[in-house]
């Protein structure tokens, strides 16, 4: 099946979001660059020559961690490398999605293409053969401190040797069965192969790329619901014009976009000389999250081609490396998490303004005139909880202290856990968007606005799921259904097409 798709050549250059998305979805198959494989072979020869001289190479003919000083004999090496892989198959929890594992394999191979890893060419061929034959290792999520995903990558490496589980043609089967059905034989790890297959951050990088792209999609939807609520509240668009002209990159980008959308509709006259900060500062709040997402994602793209191995081959010599600590990338991802908190608060504030009534003569709780109802005010309880959930996930983790392996491993980033927390934030932000859309649609209908452009589209999509609120009714299923609708990438692509923000949309490949 996958032999019919197009090929993407891995040559040690950065993998952008569009490329990663094609690989993850199975729309493209990664293949090794010939020149890159020559560099892989040259680096492997450096390792092999050193071992032949009886010199120690960490994790190749020595133990790892607390066993670093144990030197294995030539007769022990085959058994040691096989055992090293199996000792690091200890992940637990839910499985990563198949696209994340595909991208992780591609990242691992791509970083080796620069010729610093020292693994054998056979290891790279074996990795890529898994994708070619639609054998995707089943990787459980828990098992990495974020300083090389050893417990996660170990589950991929184990499949290469015929141990563990894998998805083959959509079915979860024993690795040995998957390899046999595809006509492949288990790989016999050579010295350096086992640690090269384990001691990288490829899974964390892949999962981070996935959640950052989903976060970008959620922010684009929240921008749409933000325009909806701003129109319904009669916000002045002037501060957005100012931000577009006088602010920093992210603020100017968002300010220009917001001001552009206000020109599409018959924008109501401002209802106050000075709007509340939640309306005036929308460009600043969303600009900050746009900027931090772009920076974090930029660092992540860099990580897709830079070697994070230990040891590395450099200038024909073998050197110990500290590149397995992805702290720079992690810190920027954590910064984006903090920015999400500000977005959640901004959305909550607008929701409260809508439910409080008053602006544009909106009724309290958005109760329709003449109706006996409690209205939409109780939704604020859920909105406040969602805000607090997003906020609670923004506390930085990377500086937490941990000491393992006899004091040799005392630095960590916890990037996989941070990614998992960001996934929760994105889910809750999407639910906040659904609540804002319901409130905004109610307000738009009560004041009799005739929206245009993306506001019209968002209003129509909202009303197709959640009709105008007249009598009190349960809203749980409507909120979740609307959250699902706003998560749909078909709707996102329509938003992007109707109201593009090219610098942001193109970077995250949101139209894919």
Write structural notes for this entry.
This is Aromatic amino acid lyase. Pfam families: Lyase_aromatic. Keywords: Lyase. GO terms for molecular function: ammonia-lyase activity. It comes from Ensifer canadensis. This protein is mostly helical. Helices cover 56% and strands 7% of the residues. The chain contains 20 helices and 9 strands. It has a 3-stranded antiparallel β-sheet with strand order 4-6-7. The longest helix is centred in the last third of the chain and has 33 residues, at 415-447. The radius of gyration is 26 Å and the shape is elongated. The model has no long low-confidence stretch (mean pLDDT 94).
């Amino acid at each position: 099946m996958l032999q019919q798709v197009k090929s993407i050549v891995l040559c040690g250059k950065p993998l952008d979001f569009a490329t990663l998305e094609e690989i993850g979805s199975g729309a493209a198959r990664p293949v090794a660059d010939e020149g890159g494989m020559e560099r892989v072979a040259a680096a492997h020869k450096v390792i092999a020559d050193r071992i032949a001289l009886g010199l120690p190479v960490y994790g190749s003919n020595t133990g790892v961690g607390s066993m670093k000083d144990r030197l294995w004999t030539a007769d022990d090496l085959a058994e040691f490398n096989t055992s090293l892989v199996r000792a690091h198959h200890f992940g637990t929890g839910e499985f990563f999605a198949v696209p994340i594992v595909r991208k992780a394999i591609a990242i691992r191979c791509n970083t080796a293409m620069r010729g610093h890893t020292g693994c054998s060419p056979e290891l790279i061929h074996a990795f890529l053969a898994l994708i070619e034959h639609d054998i995707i290792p089943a990787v459980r999520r828990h098992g990495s401190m974020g300083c090389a995903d050893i417990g996660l990558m170990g589950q991929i490496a184990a499949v290469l040797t015929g141990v563990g589980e894998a998805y083959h043609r959509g079915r979860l089967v024993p690795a040995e069965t998957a390899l046999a059905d595809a006509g492949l034989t288990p790989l016999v790890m050579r010295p350096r192969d086992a640690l090269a297959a384990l001691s990288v951050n490829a899974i964390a990088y892949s999962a981070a790329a996935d959640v950052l792209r989903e976060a970008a999609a959620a922010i684009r939807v929240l921008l749409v619901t933000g325009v909806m609520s701003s129109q319904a509240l009669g916000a002045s668009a002037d501060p957005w014009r100012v931000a577009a002209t006088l602010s920093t990159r992210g603020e100017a980008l968002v300010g220009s976009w917001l001001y552009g959308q206000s020109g599409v509709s018959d924008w109501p006259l401002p209802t106050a000389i000075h709007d509340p900060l939640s309306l005036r500062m929308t460009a600043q709040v969303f600009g900050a999250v746009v900027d931090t997402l772009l920076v974090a994602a930029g660092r992540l793209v860099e990580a897709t081609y830079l070697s994070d191995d230990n040891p590395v081959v450099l200038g024909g010599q073998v050197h110990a490396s500290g590149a397995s600590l992805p702290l720079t990338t992690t810190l920027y991802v954590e910064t984006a998490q903090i920015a999400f908190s500000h977005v959640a608060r901004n959305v909550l504030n607008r929701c409260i303004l809508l439910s409080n009534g008053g602006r544009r003569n909106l009724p309290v709780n958005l109760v329709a005139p003449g109706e006996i109802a409690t209205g939409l005010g109780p939704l604020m309880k859920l909105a406040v909880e969602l805000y607090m959930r997003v906020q609670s996930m923004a506390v930085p983790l990377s500086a937490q202290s941990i000491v393992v392996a006899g004091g040799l491993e005392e630095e960590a980033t916890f990037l996989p856990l941070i990614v998992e927390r960001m996934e929760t934030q994105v889910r809750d932000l999407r639910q906040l968007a659904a609540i804002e859309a319901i409130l905004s649609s109610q307000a738009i209908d009560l004041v009799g606005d005739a929206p245009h452009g993306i506001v019209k589209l968002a209003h129509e999509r909202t009303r197709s799921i959640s009709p105008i609120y007249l009598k009190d009714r349960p809203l749980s299923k409507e909120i979740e259904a609307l959250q699902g609708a706003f998560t749909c990438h078909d709707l996102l692509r329509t938003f992007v097409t109707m109201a593009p923000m090219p610098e942001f949309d193109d970077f995250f490949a949101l139209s894919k």
